[in-house]
Amino acid sequence: MKVDELPVDEKIKAVLKGRGIEELYPPQAEALRSEVLDGKNLLLAIPTASGKTLVAEIVMVERILRGAGKAVYIVPLKALAEEKYREFKVWEALGLRVAVTTGDYDRKEEWLGRYDIIVATAEKFDSLLRHGPGWLREVGLLVADEIHLIGSPDRGTTLEMILTHMLGKAQIIGLSATVGNPEELAEWLGARLVVSDWRPVRLRKGVFYDGIVRWEDGGVEKYPTGWESLTVDAVKKGKGALVFVNTRRSAERVAVELSKKMKRLLTKPELRELEKLAGELEDNPTNKRLREALRGGVAFHHAGLGREERLLVEDAFRAGRIKVVVATPTLSAGVNMPAFRVVIRDTKRYSDFGWTDIPVLEIQQMMGRAGRPKYDERGEAIIVAKDEDPEALMKRYIFGKPEKLFSMLSNESTFRGQVLALIVSFNVRSFRSLMEFLERTFYYHQRRSLEALEERAKGVVYFLLENEFIEMNLEGGFTPLPLGIRTAQLYVDPLTAKLFKDHLEDIEKGPNPLGVFHLLALTPDMPPLPVRRKEFSDWVDYAYEMEEYLYVEIPWDGYEMEKFLRALKTAKLLLDWINEVPEAKIMENYGIEPGDLHRLVELADWLVYSMAEVARVLGMENSAKYLRDLQLRVRHGVREELLPLVKLPMIGRKRARALYNAGFKTLEDIAKARPEDIKKVEGIGPKVLEALYSGLGVKVRIRKGTLDDFLK
Ligand code: ADP
Which pLDDT band holds residue 702 (cuts at 50, 70, 90)? Predict the structure, then answer.
């Protein structure tokens, strides 16, 4: 179908053509002919990178222009929300307003009412449903990207509940990778189903074993050495490769090793450019390894990378400056980063149950990254067989069907919070109406029975009653109590709120940061750091040394002890953070990477805030005040005396400390000082100085030119 033939507003067609899109791909055309433009639900299950997002974009914009209300687009990761937001900005040319919202779960975000397209993570949108901003009523369309994640043990429940809430209230579009039972999902959604394995670039798949690639079509190719030669070969052909491995450590090690091999293949100008790229990285242990890899045109990509580094790697790879990226499956699932050749080095990974095979669904998504539209005539995806039988791999991953999706609703931790939210925010006021709601879920659609779930729901309700989240009258009617209401809004697990409640008296008597951090690291909302065997006794010593500061008693039981020490290690890290230990040092001491530190601080910020709110609800004002101050220290990673300074724009923990040590201790000190003197402080350039003054609301008298000229 030509773009011109699309039954949509002419302005939409003009924007599409402006993006160089003249013709729709066959599955896109099929989807757009399915009455989805008239408001019908749609499930689109087609391979990765074959243009699902574009279908959703066209429908969103057309529906908005037809006056059908706002569109909400939900994604599984923050990074993806940003990526989609940037992509959707083009529609602002038609006068639409696009917004993105992630994080900060205790907000109503009424400001979003001014926007037409809202990109959000699933968790964020779920929290918005609980806060009930006025604009929710205006949502006419919900797009669920990567809807197959409904089958993911740790994220599925949230997505399933969002969809259950929105079904019947808004049009739903589900975008899915190819799965085993799309019919079942479509039926639940009351959606037209479009399934296809059409791809914009032809894909050839094969298995590598003992120096030989056997292609699915029977073809055979010989390679001189190990699987690494598959990447070397791609680069020799002037193309790029994406390698998938099962752990971060492998990703880094393989990247550095490959880099040595690649260096020889690169030209002098290429090497110079890479050197420049490497020079842009901040100093920390992860970046040191990344720098080493970059020098040979290779990078690694995983959840431990900092945000800037991740974007740098993605952009440089797309631009062809980085030739090979070695990635873990986690991050690369959604990010738009195609390559001529995809090499899957690992098909097994280590989990709580030991070594397990990676699901077909995931391997097929990785393979789908092969082939760059417009550049490659075909893409190649090659699975490496080590000890595995190559024929079995071929059968399972290349000719096999992806797994079926199963509802994960009974997953305990998320379910507990969801039941509370139903009672608090969605007017479910008896056990019967709770069960009635659950009958509308995918879980029930799939099993036609709630027996197992009913038991679980009963357990949760007892827990909520016992801990005063809700109360029940003689007729069995539920009423939410203040603690329950606040917990649902804060978007924390009720078990987390209970743990806070149980120890707030102690905090009220003797507040201290280590104790508070230890407590929050013990909650189910905070995944604590691992403690290695050889560190164990050191942390036991530390526990006894700090015993008087901890609010939870040191356990005797071995399993409990491990949990306790992991939380203690996490708490100590956060203590170092607010005592201004340099970031690189923290990463080295605790064996974590920039992305981990960032996530940990963000989580701790949210949990300290939540603890303060629980304290407030329970009438413990002293603790609430103490915790609110502590939250600010966590957010900025500083000692108390720097709090006024970090409020200024572009002033983080490092610059604030430098200013303070140079004698500029308060906002007045800075306002009174001469700009030349402030400029002498380490890390304060003209740009920062300008921001700093604008933050102070101080007008600097400049007669001619910019502040920059003035200070020269
Ligand atoms: P998916 O969401 O299925 O993973 P995307 O929507 O990200 O895939 O599409 C991948 C790329 O293909 C994007 O850069 C998109 O702009 C481009 N694309 C989508 N549809 C077309 C089309 N009909 N013609 C040309 N390019 C397209």
Answer: very low
| Cα 598 from Cα 577, distance rounded (Å) | 11
Is the pLDDT reported for residue 333 higher than 90?
Answer: no
Report the alpha-carbon distance of residue 531 to residue 552 in Å, rounded: 18
Q: What is the ipTM of this complex?
A: 0.98
Q: What is the pLDDT of residues 109-135, one digit of tens each?
A: 999 999 999 999 999 999 999 999 999
Contacts of the segment 211-218: beta carbons below 8 A, 24+ positions apart: 213/382, 214/390, 214/394, 216/394, 216/398, 216/399
Instruction: Please choose from 54, 80, 143, 195 the residue to mutate so as to test ligand 1's pocket, defined by most ligand atoms within 8 A of CB.
Output: 54
pLDDT confidence band for 690 (50 / 70 / 90) = confident
CA distance readout (Å), 264 to 11, 57, 236, 270, 271: 50, 44, 10, 11, 10
Mean pLDDT of 609-629: 97
- Among 246, 162, 154, 147, CA closest to 193: 147
Q: What residues flank ligand 1, with Cβ below 6 Å?
A: 21, 23-25, 28, 48-54, 336, 373
User: C-alpha 78: how far from its chain's center?
Assistant: 4
Distance, in Å, from the CA atom of 126 to the CA atom of 114, rounded to the nearest integer, reads: 20
Give distance in angstroms: CA of 639 to centre of ligand 1. 48
Per-residue pLDDT reduced to its tens digit, 4-29: 999 999 999 999 999 999 999 999 99
Helical segments of 211-267, H only: 228-236, 248-263
In the chain, what are the domains? Answer: 3-195 (3.40.50.300), 202-398 (3.40.50.300), 412-490 (1.10.10.10), 494-637 (1.10.3380.20), 643-711 (1.10.150.20)
Phi, psi at 297, each rounded to 5°:
75, 20
Query: To the nearest whole percent, how much of the chain has pLDDT over 70?
Result: 97
Q: How far apart, in whole angstroms, are the C-alpha atoms of residue 274 and residue 306?
A: 19
- Token duo for residue 80: 């993806």
**200 alpha carbon – ligand 1 mean position (Å):** 9
User: In Å, how far are 44, 271, 309, 336, 598 from 313, measured between CA atoms?
Assistant: 30, 16, 6, 12, 18
CB distance 307 to 314 below 8 Å:
no
